[in-house]
Amino acid sequence: MSDRQDAASGPIGKLGQNNFDLVRLFAATQVALLHMISHLQMDGAIAVPLAWFLSYFPGVPIFFFVSGFLISRSYLRSSNWRSYAMNRFLRLYPALAACFVVSVLLVAASGYFSETPPPLNDFAVWIAAQLTVLQVYNPDFLRGFGVGVLNGSLWTIPVEMQFYIAFPILIALLGPGRRALALAAVGFIAIYIGFGVLARNGGLVAKLVSVTFLPWFGLFLLGVLASLSWERLRPFVEGTFIWWAAAYAAAHALSATLLPSWGQLGNMMSLPYVFVLCGLVLSAAFTRRGLADRLLHKNDVSYGIYIYHMPFVNLALYWGLAGSAGGVGLVLAGTFGFAALSWFVVERPALRMKPTVLIRR
């Protein structure tokens, strides 16, 4: 039996019912709402306290941690690397390609291309970048549309792809044992801390490093370790959401009063927050098991919300709707409407083509 099969039959067992769909939905909505509030200049009685509350639960670190927890299980339980690669492709690319087509149509419908015709060569390069692994690339001909970057949130997609590649390589080098992976996690957490210092100074190097897996892989590996140690962690997180929420609130209160240097939030949140946030996420996923299924009925629109919100924010900005109820309505309707279409028309049919699903059938 292979090491992967050993791991699958050992620490990687079935999770049963969980609320990860709700966790992802919250994380995607957090990112979308904060971008809306910021770019659309929403400063009303609801927007300001909502932004303050959401800032304490950064969606990107949540996504990376959950990805490590679940993707590691997917890899270690897959029959071979081909099925693993196909599963990852079907989860990301069909919806991503559809979103790109919709985004181009939105820009065209806005009238922007009539005023700023895109050079054919630049347009072709943009298409190639968006449909491969360079979603961070934004052409110069789009600098006048909205914030100047059509879908800046997609920077995390290439990072996720790098996770998908780096994790099997790490397993091949170190094996699936917890100790070796824990040492790797410590190393990458050190890179995360170092990058936090680099990012505060800004510059081109920080920007280039930020779109690689290096500063974020530590968050992913924390999820991996939590997955491999699930049976040991389970008593501490199952049904304990209220206690983890209290601990997270206490950590922020302590930071605000005694340790202000710990108080950094956002994607590069301070390390003490990271560990408590990971516990909070797991407790949310395993408290009141089945809540996600009862509320969402196994529908997952989180990916659609994440990839569609910024094209609609930019459309509202280009039409001069910042600070207006019309702009908010356009972005909300467009984001959630196309997220639902993405799930029912693109994502769910694509997921039914997964090799693991076909094997079960």
Category from helices, strands and their pairing: mainly alpha
Biggest sheet descriptor: none
Mean pLDDT across the residues is 89
Q: Which overall shape is indicated by the principal axes computed on the Cα atoms?
A: globular
Number of distinct beta strands: 0
* Number of separate helices: 18
**How much of the sequence is in beta strands?**
under 5%
Could you tell me how far the N terminus lies from the C terminus, measured between alpha carbons in angstroms? Answer: 24 Å
Domains (count): 1
The arrangement of helices and strands along the chain is HHHHHHHHHHHHHHHHHH
Radius of gyration: 21 Å
Uncertain ranges? 1-11, 357-361
Estimate percent helicity: over 70%
Short description:
The chain is mainly α. The protein has helices at 3-9, 20-39, 47-54, 59-77, 81-110, 112-115, 120-130, 156-174, 178-201, 204-210, 217-228, 230-237, 241-257, 271-285, 291-296, 302-318, 325-351, 355-360. It contains 18 helices and no strands.
Walk me through the topology:
Elements: H1 3-9, H2 20-39, H3 47-54, H4 59-77, H5 81-110, H6 112-115, H7 120-130, H8 156-174, H9 178-201, H10 204-210, H11 217-228, H12 230-237, H13 241-257, H14 271-285, H15 291-296, H16 302-318, H17 325-351, H18 355-360
Helix pairs in contact: 1-4, 2-3, 2-4, 2-16, 4-8, 4-11, 4-14, 5-16, 5-17, 9-10, 9-11, 13-14, 16-17
